[in-house]
Structure formats: structure tokens, C-alpha cells
Amino acid sequence: MVSSILAKDQNVLIVGAGLFGLSTALHLAQDGYNNITVIDKESLPNSCSAGNDLNKIVRAEYEDPFYTGLALNAIQEWQTPFWSAYYRSTGYLLTTSLNAPQKACDTIKKSFASIKDHPSIPPGSFSAVDNANDIKEYVPMLVGKMEGWSGYFNRYAGYVRAAKALKYTEMMCLKLGVKFVTGDNGSTKPTHTVLCVGAYIGTLLPSITTQVIAKSWAVAHIQLSPNEAAGMKGCPVVNCRDLGFFFEPDDDTGLIKLSANGAGYTNTVSAAGKSASVPICVNDGMPKEDEELIRRLIQETMPQFSGKELLNKFICWCGDTSDSNYIIDFVPDTEGLLVVAGDSGHAFKMLPVAGKWVERALEKGRQSIERWKWKNTTKGSHEISWRVGKVKDIKDVELSTSKGQV
Ligand SMILES: Cc1cc2nc3c(=O)[nH]c(=O)nc-3n(C[C@H](O)[C@H](O)[C@H](O)COP(=O)(O)OP(=O)(O)OC[C@H]3O[C@@H](n4cnc5c(N)ncnc54)[C@H](O)[C@@H]3O)c2cc1C
């Protein structure tokens, strides 16, 4: 056991109540730390949080085996009684469509190779799919043509009911005595501050913007009737790398969440000779080109719903690093300030386990995992190995809103 330099009654202030902030508060409180405060701009469900959505994919395949191991730990946790009400083990179909860029096909091959014979995964969890008929064998709810689709089906995966899981985590934190403060009225004097503000980190800590770039992706929902929802019940998560992904209908609302894949959109602003991407709330709209991708995804897989209106269009922000590694480290030249950033669009699945990583760094007073260290030299990059397409600025694309194009 590592001795801790953090006393149980030390005042720890966590800024940001997304997955990292809440998971950190939960782990600290569960381990007996009794002076934890979480502050956020808004109360949950929080429109600025990347996790405030119906659902997020939970899968363990990564190009990098380090994250495969972490995600497998997380999946085990999701299946325990503490978390299982929020996890759905539906399976996960990962494919490319006809004429997909080579990069998308290569990414799938790397994901498959990283996981198919992993000793921690039940044997027989993976099946290659080479055409639409193969896909329909594993995902019979998909009745579309899916011409030229191929990839694999993973039974050891699913999704989490994201916003509900955050709310639950907050409730468990409250039970353990964690204090929550909303807005600007925090008057705590912390010995340690943990910044977990997701894509907003550059607005509080401009020095990190050489490592973390705020980027966004489009999300929308379609409404199913109770009969239609019953027909799609149990549908695995479907992710077509060059189009987008979707989930089974939400139990409570019958909404299917769909998101477009791509390299992401920045919102670059300049001040005092420096420029950085900062999140901008778009709560009624999405890039028109993403709406087209989502429409193609629906047409290819579930054409019976292609006439449905896209509802609740919005863009969702995360903080991208060039190698998709998180940053969980003390900020150089500061006293007790730890930053948790660079979620790189793949952190939500880690909700049950991420807080433990932050707790370890706080207790040791340093980060010993090389890849999670603050990097003075790394330049943020738009070239991400597993993302398809070209990064664009949100100001340069046409938006489609519920009222029409803008
Ligand atoms: C389109 C999209 C799809 C995704 N899909 C998946 C997926 O399928 N599976 C998966 O595992 N991950 C997925 N992710 C990634 C996942 O959503 C994020 O990694 C995760 O939610 C990031 O959590 P966070 O705690 O870092 O930030 P957030 O959840 O964004 O939380 C940050 C919090 O900080 C608060 N805040 C901001 N500024 C301040 C301030 N100045 N003062 C106080 N509070 C502040 C905000 O209000 C917010 O509550 C996806 C991301 C996107 C963008």
C-alpha cells in the first residue's frame, strides 16, 4: 500500500461535475476523505457536460492495449450491483461502409487485433462480419441494405445510460457527505484543487491549450413510437466508422440517439496574439454535412425510419490530445493544483474507475504514469490516428437547426 500525503480531512475542491469530477469525488469519499466539495457552473443534468446525454458506448477495443486494460476493468465494474442499473450489455457492431476511407478500415483492423484474443474476454465474443447478411445474423433489427459494409461484432460491450449514471454518482457522493456548490458562490479554501472541466479547460488554464484542443461532434435523436421501439429493443450499438453511430431506443422516452463520426469541429478564437479553440453552446443545430451522414446511416440500416425528423440537434464538446492520452497531473509551478483533461472523446466508459486514478495522483503528490503527465513540449494536433476526415471550424460550416439552415 502506498502511503498518502493527503490527510483524510484535507479540503479538496473539485471543479466540474462531469465524469472525471464526480468519479473523483466518489472514490475519495468512499475511501474516507471527508472534506470534498464539487463546484460546477450548473446543477445536474448539466448542458455543458459532454456526459449529459442519453447514452455512451462501452467497449474495450483500443489501438493501445493500455486503454484496453482500463476499459476491461471498467466493464467489470459496470456489471457489479453498484453500477449495473445503468449498463446495458447489448453488444457492439463496428463497421465501415462502401467506399470508406482506408484509414477507417485500418482502424477497425487494429481494434479487432487489440481485443479478439484478449485473455480477459470470454472466448467467442467476437465475430467478423463481411457483408449485410452476416450483420443481420447478429443484429436482426437492421433491415437496410448496408451495401459494402464489413467489420466485426463484439458481444462483450454495450452502452451506459450516461446522464442517469452521472445523476446516480452525484446521489452516491451526497450520501457519503460530498458537498455540491452550483454557480459562483463557492467560498471554500482548498488545500488541493482538481480541475475537471472537460473541453472548457483552456478557459481556466490557457497554458494547456498546446496539449488539449476543444473539439465537438454532432448529436441528434429520432422519436420512435412504443411499437417501433419494441421492434428495436436490444439492438446492439451500431458504429459505422465513416458515417456515425446509434443505440437502441431509450427505455423511458423511445428516443434513439445518433451521432456523426468525423474529425471534429473546433471554435477557434484569438486574443492577445494567441488563438485557441473554446467550446460554444449549440443547443439547436448541427453541421448540415453531419445531418447528411446521420441520414445516410439511418437509410443504410433502418430505412423504415428515414422519414423521421431529427430532434434535439446539438454539438457535444470534448478535449482532444494528439495521442488520445488523458492528462492527469499537477500543473507545473502551482501549489496543489491537479488537472484532469484531454478525455479525447473516450472517457465516459471509465466512470466507475477514473476517480481512482486521480485519487492515486493526489495521494502520491505526483503522477507516476508517464503517458498521463503534463507535457511541456507536445503540440496539440488535429491528426488523430483513429479519427476519419478533416477538422473544420464550426464557424466555417452551415448549420441545420429545427427552424432550417443558418
Ligand atoms: C459526441 C461525443 C460522443 C462521445 N461518445 C462517447 C462514448 O460513446 N463512450 C465514451 O466512453 N465516451 C464518449 N465520449 C467522451 C465522453 O463524453 C467524455 O470523455 C466525458 O464525458 C468527459 O468528461 P469530463 O468530466 O472530462 O467533462 P464534462 O463531462 O464535459 O464535464 C465538465 C464539467 O465542467 C463544468 N465546467 C466547465 N467550466 C467550468 C467552470 N469554469 N467552473 C465550474 N464548472 C465548469 C461543466 O459544466 C461540466 O459539468 C463522447 C464525447 C463526445 C463529444
From TrEMBL:
GO terms for molecular function: flavin adenine dinucleotide binding; saccharopine oxidase activity; sarcosine oxidase activity. Its cofactor is FAD. InterPro entries: FAD-dep_OxRdtase, FAD/NAD-bd_sf, MTOX. Keywords: FAD, Flavoprotein, Oxidoreductase. Gene3D superfamilies: D-Amino Acid Oxidase, subunit A, domain 2, FAD/NAD(P)-binding domain. It comes from the Eukaryota. Belongs to the MSOX/MTOX family. PANTHER family: L-SACCHAROPINE OXIDASE (PTHR10961:SF26), PEROXISOMAL SARCOSINE OXIDASE (PTHR10961). This is FAD dependent oxidoreductase. It comes from Hyaloscypha hepaticicola.
